[in-house]
Write a structure and sequence with these properties.
By secondary structure, this protein is α/β, with parallel strands linked by helices. It has 13 helices and 7 strands. The protein is 52% helix and 13% strand. It has a 7-stranded parallel β-sheet with strand order 3-2-4-1-5-6-7, with helices on both faces.
Length: 321
């Protein structure tokens, strides 16, 4: 593992791939190598790309890769599949077109699976970003499907977030219902050559008009990624948003809040794991579940008793209930 870390810091892409695999598998030595690479992180700018399946996110990421490389930036891409790392589904399949960048040593592309764990998605993605950051990438793009919890996870992880919609596909209506209007720093209506693009843009702008005015108003951009139309304006908007965050001091606010959240989540994760490991050793969980199902015990008392058995409450808990 030590050699892998040294190779990573020298820019070795194979070492990065192997360390990300260690993260995905939650390998025993993961914590040590993350600790070792941490002082070498904090430089990469993270861009989140989310939106419904079929919105053309992978095509946009592919075009953005070209723009970033033209500007001399080193880029990492993490594509998150929220179903299975072995699904071979639309997202993993769509990323095949990005492989034209595979021979570019300054581009690193990796697909990751959540294995059904949304909390795992957030943690594993953050850790993979650290690996790419230590690898020396200037920008890390995170692409994920905007369903369920994943768009919330992405906004917690990214410095700038772009939400990709399609014209007249009900996306804007669903966006309102899902309450994710707040997450986007940039709205992108991709496939804008289809009917309904202008209407979708108008609807989003109307919703933005109803919000309290802020220093940064998310732009609503139209693109046709397969024809490379509107993508220059998109890249410029991403650079403008970064400049705004840096000049206003909001970038440090975002990152400070992220560190606080990550620290809290890590403590909760460690405590939960330790408590459950102790509980499993001292409590026959299946028997307890059966008692609750048969209404011989209520779940509230059962939970308290489980924790009392491992002395979770200490001396004070012996009296309480």
């Amino acid at each position: 593992m030590q050699q892998l870390v040294q190779d990573l810091l020298k820019g070795n892409r194979r070492a990065a791939a192997r360390l990300i695999s260690q993260i995905e598998n939650d390998a025993p030595g993961k914590r040590e190598f993350l600790k070792e690479i941490f002082p070498h992180t904090g430089r990469a700018y993270v861009i989140g790309v989310t939106g419904a399946p079929g919105a053309g996110k992978s095509s946009l990421v592919d075009v953005l890769l070209q723009k970033m490389r033209a500007d001399g930036l080193k880029v990492g891409v993490i594509g998150v599949d929220p179903t299975s790392p072995f699904s071979g589904g639309a997202i993993l399949g769509d990323r095949i077109r990005m492989q034209e960048h595979a021979l570019d040593k300054e581009v690193f592309i990796r697909s990751m699976g959540t294995r059904g764990s949304l909390g795992g998605l957030a943690r594993a993605t953050r850790e993979a970003i650290q690996v790419l950051d230590a690898l020396g990438k200037d920008v890390v793009l995170i692409e994920t499907v905007g369903v369920g919890q994943s768009e919330v996870d992405i906004v917690k992880t990214a410095d700038s977030t772009m939400l990709v919609l399609t014209p007249a596909g009900g996306d804007s209506v669903q966006t309102i219902k899902a309450g994710i209007m707040e997450i986007a720093d940039i709205f992108v209506i991709n496939k804008a050559d289809l009917p309904g693009a202008e209407r979708t843009a108008t609807e989003i702008n109307m919703m933005l008009d109803m919000k309290e005015s802020e220093a940064w108003r998310p732009p609503v951009l139209s693109t046709v990624s397969v024809r490379n139309e509107g993508t220059e304006a998109l890249w410029n908007s991403l650079k403008e948003h970064r400049n705004y965050l840096e000049e206003s001091g909001k970038l440090m606010e975002i990152r400070r809040a992220r560190v606080r959240r990550e620290l809290t989540e890590q403590v909760e994760y460690l405590v939960k794991n330790r408590v459950w490991n102790q509980v499993k050793e001292q409590v026959r969980l299946d028997d307890l579940v059966e008692k609750i199902v048969l209404r011989r015990q209520d779940p509230y008392s059962a939970a308290y008793e489980m924790l009392a058995k491992i002395n979770f409450y200490g001396e004070e808990g012996k009296e309480g209930g």
